[in-house]
Amino acid sequence: MTRRIAKIVSVSFFFLQQTAIAQSNGSAPAKSGDEYQYPELLVAPSASERLKEESKNEDRNAWTINIPVQLSAASTLLAGLVALSDPGKSSGKDEKVTDEARDQIKWASSTGVAIGGAWLGATALLSAKYRPYKTGDKELAKVSGGDKKAQLARERLAEEALEAPAILQGRLKWIALASNLGAAGFIASSAGDASTKITAGIAGIMAFTPILFSNHWEDTWRYQESYKKKVYGPLTGLGFTPDRRTGALTPMVNLAWNF
Questions:
Q1: Domain range for residue 25?
Q2: Which helix (H) or strand (E) holds 253?
Q3: Which of 103, 159, 207, 216 has the most beta carbons within 10 angstroms of its beta carbon?
Q4: What whole-number distance in Å separates Cα of residue 98 and Cα of residue 182?
Q5: CB 130 within 8 A of CB 61
Q6: Residue 259 DSSP code
Q7: Are residues 156 and 40 in contact, defined by beta-carbon separation less than 8 angstroms?
Q8: pLDDT tens for residues 151-196?
Q9: Please, are residues 79 and 184 in contact by the beta-carbon 8 Å criterion?
């Protein structure tokens, strides 16, 4: 009996929630009830609508998306160039620079120039060639039909197109942080001149730029995900809790309100 009551309560909460969502979107709940199964079809704006809007502005925004990574890379490149004229770290009482120290600062300088230049080149190529939103929007046009299956396919493909660049950017920014910070640390530990150490220190600070500033690809996907999660906001799911009298596990309804 307890389980049956729990099921009835959960279904009631679910129905009331979906009815409220349909009314807030300006439409009454459908008679068949199929719409309640797919949150992708209830989100406003839908993933396909957002993808189409983003694709219109993609060319204009492409050259600003990677600026945080490029600032970090430019700082590393500058530190490497400054280190080219650094004699190396002196040691001993006579403060002579050994051949080993000279080789180390040369390696550090080359590392900074290579990593900084590589990131600048890679992000420039990404800005020039990578158009995930336009590509995704073209893929949606290939899905024909107006039935529920076709609508759901378009929305899920649109979500994939919105998520892909966000995942890519999330990986790139952490790789950029690790590589640029490592290069800056290598230069600073090998430098003999104060100017080189200062430049490397600035490059080390700038290495955190990609994770300190939000990225348009990640923001777009995060907003779309948050809208979708709110569709099922009030009902989290069913769980179990110990009965106070008998200690036996009994079903319970877990609610979480999102605003």
A1: 2-255
A2: strand 249-255
A3: 207
A4: 23
A5: no
A6: -
A7: yes
A8: 889 999 999 999 999 999 999 999 999 999 999 999 999 998 999 9
A9: yes
